[in-house]
Each structure stands twice: as structure tokens, then as C-alpha cells.
Amino acid sequence: MAHTGTTRRRLTAAVVVTLAVTAGTLAAGPAVAGPVTAATGAVAAPAQSADQDVVPFPVDAVVVNVGPTGFLSFQSGPTGVWRWTRFSDGVSTVLPEKPGWADRTDVLSRAENGVFRLSDMGTGADPVVIDTNPLGGGHTVAGFAGTDIVTKKANATGGTELHVIGLREGVLVDHTVTGLPADTVLTAFNMDSPGSAVIRYTGTVDGVKRNRAAVVDIAAHAVVEEYETPATSVTTTALSATHIAWVEVGEDSSTTKVAVTRRGTDETVRHDVGTTNSVAVELVGDWLTYRQFSQYAYGTWNARYALYARSLTTGETVKLLEHTTSSASGPDGTQLARGGTFEQDEGLYRIAPGAVGARPVVTLVASTGEPTALKLLSHGIPETIDFDRETAPVQLNWTLSRQSTRVRIDMVHTATGKTWKPDVSHLGGGVVGFKWDGMYAAGWNGVRSYKDGVPAPNGAYTWRLTAEPLDGIGPAVEKTGSFTVVRKAVPHDFNDNGTPDLLIREPSGSHLSLYNTSSPLGAWPVTPSVPLGTGWDIYDAFLSPGDVAGDGRADVLARDTKGVLWLHQGTGRAFAPRVRVGGGWQIYKQLTGGSDLTGDGRADLVATDTAGDLWLYKGTGSATAPFAPRVKTGHGWGIYNKIIATGNIGGGPAGDLVARDKDGVLWLYLGKGDGTFAARTRIGGGWNTYSDIVGFGDADRDGRPDLMALTAWDGVPYFYKGTGDWKAPFSARSEAYGYAHLGGTAF
To answer: What per-residue string of b and e applies to 462-483 under the rule 16 or more CB within 10 Å gives b?
Structure first.
């Protein structure tokens, strides 16, 4: 049964916060709406003109109350910050302590020892001071109605009374709200406006225990309307000029429905809003708005907490906000919600009735400056990464607009198309990234294993970031960018990744393969070899002299069976079509290159003929004519069956040579820098166990050239680390590639 009364606005979801009464004084506290509002920070909003500017809204804050001229917000933190913000200019006043407030007004309260100071933040008038001590004890604050205080007080029969306390012409008055049963148990008190409230209670009416929602006229201090509610749990309520609504939760919490009744009638329609969880409801014109909320997700974004509106006339349902973190009733029949839209992003939104039959109007009134859709805000990817200069792994970061994301990074080497998907870490504040040590792995997580993990090639790269919002708000974001990796050129590097590689002509004779290395070297993990083509069986001699063509790339020279010498110019990933260097090279028993023997910075070539003479071919740096005419630099070299250009292993002015005699003894020839050599020095024996010995360059990146050797009978590669001491230029051998039997011809 409904009573006639003053026109009312709708009521936001609320909860009573009761404050203890001590020593006969009235303790003050905010009139906060139910556990829902207390946990999610429900907000209320003012009316706003169409041309009013959008003002700032604190990030990570909730709106507690909104009046015609401004709003009260609370920002969490170590101490918490309460502030009042004006809508007209966005100016905020930080409050010294937590205030009480009168819903949908600009009135804030502060109390001490039962004396309340009620300040109108909109007018700036002197505060209204109410001393409640003369009323005695027993009162607890239920809420504030403008400059009146609404309290609860136990009666003589054990029930609960409501009181309206205020000043009338300067005189303290205390009015008991009429129309409630003597045994009333008050379960909720929600201010709908400065002039009206909705309460829920149980009590005996006409001899029967009943559950009711009642509208209280504050000025008349009387219950003016009552509505029967079910015995099952009723949570939030809402009130408009035409309807009252409440949320009904089934006994087993398996159903949640919103009951909407036209005021003054028994015409109740129950709406299934598609969830069994608690919802907060509002009435905006002829529309019911609702949002699912979590009591324990203070400020958390979640697509489940979107704000929806359902027409009370047609049943049409629309989404108003992509998510909300709080909401509350505002003045003039409006609702305000803290949330976001893809069009206007994050902030405080005013939901107002539209034209007759039209959807509610959504207007941004205060902005946090945060995007609602996931966005890449910035990245920390340098244009160039020089791994010769970097002494530690490079931190590569991307900053997203929020933290709750699933991120994948794809890095692609432009020249080869090789892709790496590194394992990405979340570093806080929306920052994701990883530390890159210049290694490039093919595995999904970038984990180096026995079969992957090599230095990344130099050159251009593209990166692609794909970030999926885990909160379900908006689509995934995809952004791309580029950078370049550079290193200085090193000898024997055929794939342009800053480390020397081993070239093997496979036992079939036709196929050439590249075996990559990684650093540091313990036993190098062997990666699948890279095929470099077929048809190499036309050659009877190979050598890797370094950068013959002068373009910074390692090249290969090969002699065919007719004595023609061919240059295969390196490109960093393959070889360019061969170029004829010259003929008549069949006169030489040994060819080697890879050392700068003349001190001019270019790779030179030496050869021994059948007479045992040593000839120097000085490098020119020209791809078409890579060597100057030969110069004889020694004789008696016919005693050696292997000569290897090693680079500068002795610390002298130029590159050196090592030579193996028929007894397996290895000899060092220190270069003088003019193409000639000092007298030989014995540096070891037993080297006849190897079929190939290769001057490998600086494999372990310690600044000293190293040596590689393959056993004759099973093709196991061994690594000889350079020491920099010409008397003992190599340390004891170590296995270079674990479990490898390469076979074939190495160079």
C-alpha cells in the first residue's frame, strides 16, 4: 500500500553506517550507502549545463558524494586523501579529516564531542552548528539530510526509532519519525535527497511480522509510502518520482532480480538482469540502470562491471559504460558513475533522463585522463643497439595504459625473416619488457636450449607488440616499430652476428653448411646448420681470408680443379654470385688467408708453391681485383702440410702464421708487419691428429684470436683459446661443439 507524499527523487544503493554513542554524546559519521557503496566508492553527481567544462578527477579515487556545485572524493593511499572539487573550475580543497556528508548536496559535516558543524561547500556560508548533547545519549547517526541529522535510537520496547534533529530558528529540535511499528528493526537507511529517504525494516503491522520498504518525508518526519518486500534478502534500493525499485536475492543466492513498482500502486515487475551476483540499481527517468559490483574489487576495472540501462516501457537494454568502479544518485534525477567509454575514456559520467522514450544521456563531467581502451603509451626501444658498446643486457620496455594484460612480442630480422618471441615480464605500472643480451632464439619463450640460441644478426629489425586486456575491456592492441643492431665486423663471421662461424663442406662434397657459435664458449651448443648451397664439389681448395672485398663482410675464396680462383663475396646471410679472381693457382700446394700481414688493415693471402717458396698477395679491398701482384717473402715452406693464417696471436705489429710439419709439430711465425716473419717457434706437437686447422678469429670475444681443429677420423671439432702469449699462444683444447661429429672439410 502506498501513501501520498512529497515528490521524491530516486535512491542510490546505500548502507547504514552506525556510529557508537559514548557518554551521552552523538558521534558523527558519514551517511554512506550499504556495503556496496562503502566498498566500491559509490559517487553522486551534480546537474551540469551543456557547456560546462570537464574538470579533473583523481586517478584511483572514488566519488563519495556529489552536490549541485561539486563532489567529494576519496583517494586511497597510505593515509588516504579526502577532497572537495568544484565543477565550475576543478579547484580542489584537501580536507584535514574524513567528513560526514548530506547526500546529493554540497553540505559536509564534522563533529567533535557531540557538536556538529555542517558546512555548505557551494555557498561558503558560515557553518550550521548543532550541539546534540542536550538530547542525551542513545543516538547514532544514520545520515544527514541537508543541515538536519537523522539518527537511530532504541525505544522502550526494544524497537528502533528514527529521529530528525536540527535547528529551527536557532532552536534545537528533535522529531521522531512517525508511521513505524514499535518493534521496528531497521535494516537499511538511504537518503534519496535532502528531503526524503528510503528505509527498509521488519516490524509488526496489523498483527503480522512484515518486511517493508518505506519512503520517509524528512520535513514532515513521517513515513509517507510503504511497500511489501519479500522475506528473502533485499539489498540495494532506488527511488524516482514515478517508481521505487529494490534488488531481491534468492535464499540460496542462485537468483538475483530487480523488482520495480510504480509508486502509489501494487504494480510490480521483476527484471532478470542476467546475473546471480549483487547489483547496484538506479532509476533514471523511465529507465532502470544496473551494474554488477564486487565488494572486494575496490577500483578494479572489469568488463563484468559495465553499466547497463533497461527501459521500463519497452524492455530495451543498452550498455552505457564499458565498466564502472562506483556509482550513485545525483541531483535532479540523475546518476553519476565512475567508469569509462571508448569515445571519451575514463572519468565521472553523468547519466540523465533523455527525451520521452529516448535512452539516457551520458555526459563526461570529470576526467582522469586515462584511456578506457588499452593503449601503448610509449616504448623504450632505441633506434640503434650497438652490442660492442653494451656491457650489460639491454632493457627493452613498452608502457601500456594499464597493467592487467597478456603480452606477446615478436621480433623479426628484416633480411632473413627470422622471428623470435621473447619471454616478456610485467614490471609494474603497465610496463612490460625484457633484458636482451643480443642472443636470438627460435623457441616460443626465447629459451636457449641445445638446439637454439645464437647471437642475433646485425641489421634492421621490426618488433610487434600484441597486448590483450585481461579485464575484458576493449580489444587487443597491436603496435609495431623498428630498430637496428650493429657490431663491428669480425673475421670468419658469415652470418653477420658478431661471432665467427665454421664453414663445412659436407662429406658429400657438394653441400656447404654454416655452423653458428654462441658466447660464452664452454661446449658450444650446436644449432641446426645453415645450408649455403650446393655445387661446391667443383673446388679442390677453400679458404676464408676475411673481408677481401672491403665491404665489412667475410668472404670465401675457392680454387677449382683447373686452377681458377673464385671470390664468393659474403652478404651477411649467403654469398653473392662468384667473381673470377685469376687463373694459374694450381701451382700452389697451400693457400691461406685471414691475417693482415702488412699492417694496412686489409686481409692478405699467402701461398706456397711446389718448390716451397712463400708468396704474399697483398689485399687491395677491391672485389674485382682483390690482390696486388705476388711478392716472394720466404722459402723452405715445402716441409709443411698445413699453413694457417691466425691473425695477431703474438701481440706483434701484424698478423701471424702457424704451420704444421709432417711430424705433427706446430710452429709459430710471428709477422713483422711487412709481409715477412720472424724465425719460427715450436708451440706444440701431436697436431697430425687433425684433418683441418682453421684460424677462427676471436670466438670467445676476449680480444684474442683463437683456433679450431677437426679430428681426421671422426670430425670432432676442438677449440684452442688464444692466450696472447707468443711463447704459448693457445690454451689446452676443449670440445667446441657438444656431441658433434662434423666431418667434411672445415675452413
So the answer is: ebebebbbebebbeebeeeeeb
- Do the beta carbons of residue 384 and residue 466 sit within 8 Å? no
The fraction of the chain above a pLDDT of 70, given in percent, is 87
Per the listing, cell 576543478 goes with: 90
- Cα gap 612→601, rounded to integer Å: 27
Kindly provide the residue ranges of all beta strands, DSSP E only, lying in 610-674, ordered along the sequence: 614-617, 631-634, 640-647, 656-661, 666-669
The DSSP secondary-structure symbol of 40 reads H
CA-derived radius of gyration, the chain: 43
pTM above threshold 0.85: no
Distance of CA 386 to the CA centre of its chain: 26
Pairing of the two strands 431-436 and 394-400: antiparallel
Supply the pLDDT for residue 380: 94
CA dist 84 and 82 (Å) reads 7
As a whole number of angstroms, the distance between CA 244 and CA 241 comes to 8
Extract the C-alpha cell encoding 347: 572519468
DSSP 51: T
What are 727's three cell numbers? Answer: 711463447
Query: Which letter, b or e, does each residue of 416-428 get, where b requires 16 or more Cβ atoms within 10 Å of its Cβ?
Result: bebebbbebeeee
Give residue 133's pLDDT.
95
From first CA to last CA, the distance across the chain in angstroms is: 101
Three-state secondary structure call for residue 623: coil
Q: Convert the pLDDT of each residue in 295-344 to its tens digit.
A: 555 567 889 899 999 999 999 999 999 999 888 788 888 888 899 999 99
Q: In the Cβ-directed half-sphere of 300, how many Cα atoms lie within 13 Å? A: 15
Pick from 331, 333, 332, 336: which is nearest to 320 by CA? 336
Quote the percentage of the chain above a pLDDT of 90. Answer: 48
Residue 80 and residue 60 in contact, taking contact as beta carbons nearer than 8 Å = no
Q: 625 forms bridges with which residues in the sheet?
A: none
* Half-sphere exposure for 498 (CA within 13 Å, toward CB): 26
632 by DSSP, 3-state: which?
strand
Q: Hey, which residues does 324 pair with through a beta bridge? A: 339
3-state helix, strand, coil in the chain (%, to 5): 5, 50, 50
Residue 406 main-chain phi, psi, to 5 deg? -115, 120
CA distance 95 to 65: 14
**Which among 352, 339, 289, 351 has a CA at the least distance from the CA of 316?**
289
C-alpha torsion 107→112→113→116, nearest 10: -20
Low-confidence ranges of the chain (pLDDT < 70): 1-52, 294-299, 441-453, 517-528, 737-747
Q: What is the spatial distance between Cα 225 and Cα 238, in angstroms, rounded to a whole number?
A: 14
From residue 402, give the alpha-carbon distance in Å to each of 11, 340, 373: 33, 13, 9
Q: How far lies 413's CA from each of 161, 462, 499, 652, in Å?
A: 77, 7, 17, 39
> Cβ–Cβ contacts within 10 Å for residue 94, how many?
9
Distance from C-alpha of 19 to C-alpha of 29, rounded to nearest angstrom: 6
